[in-house]
Amino acid sequence: MTPFRVRPRIFLLVLGILACAARAWCQPMSAGDCNADDTVTVEEIVTLVRIALEEASLEQCVAGDQNGDGRVTIEEIVLAVQAALAAPAPPRKAFVTATDFQTGSFALIDLDPPFQVEPASPQRRVGADPVARVFGRRVFVVNRFGSDNVQVLDASGGFRTVVQCSTGNGSNPQDIAFRNGTQAYVPLLARPWLLRVNPRPSPDCHDFIQGQIDLRPYADSDGSPEANQAVVVGDRLFVTLERLQNFAPVRNGLLLVIDTRTDSIAGEVELSGANSFGMTKGLTVRGDWLFVAEVGQFGVADGGIEAVNLHTLEPSGILLTEEELGGDVTDFVFVNSDEGYAIVSLPDFSTALVRYSLERRRRLDVVLRGDGLSDIELASNGLLFLTDRNLRKPGVRIFRASDAQEVTLAPLQTGLPPFDLVFLE
Question: Which residues pair with 195 in a beta bridge?
Answer without folding.
Answer: 186, 212
